[in-house]
Design brief:
It is a single chain. It is built from three helices and six strands; from the N terminus they run E-H-E-E-H-E-H-E-E. It is of the alpha+beta class.
């Protein structure tokens, strides 16, 4: 299933992640999943929220640099090899995974994997 992910760019300095998550909490943004990747100067806080467009707008109004992208959410079983099986299907289709992260789901017995993927080169 396709879902909207919000990427929030924050400075890689002590307290900035706490500041961003406090802003998120104070503005009623309900997080479903969260991942952070960092570089020397900044971090990318990737979140799945209940109301992605409204949440992104609140963050922009708070002065944050925000990007909304479509990602794929896939439910997987809680069993060894579940992730490998999905990645093999994706690879066989010629799709390149840019990044992935997981979160536990209460409606299914297992987890949900979030994938950001590139379909790869266009056919000639």
């Amino acid at each position: 299933m396709s879902v909207k992910q919000i990427s929030v760019y924050i400075e890689n300095q002590p307290g900035k992640l706490a500041e961003a998550t406090r802003f998120i909490a104070d503005h009623g943004i309900n997080l479903r999943a969260l991942s952070i990747a960092d570089t020397r100067d900044f971090g990318i806080l990737r979140i799945i929220a209940d109301e992605p467009e409204a949440s992104a707008e609140k963050l922009r109004e708070g002065g944050y640099i925000v990007n909304v992208t479509e990602v794929i959410a896939v439910g997987i079983k809680d069993a060894p090899g579940s992730l490998a099986a999905i990645l093999e299907i994706i690879a066989a289709a010629g799709v390149s995974v840019e990044y992935t992260y997981a979160f536990l789901a209460t409606r299914i017995s297992g987890a949900v994997m979030i994938f950001r993927a590139d379909a790869g080169p266009s056919p000639p």
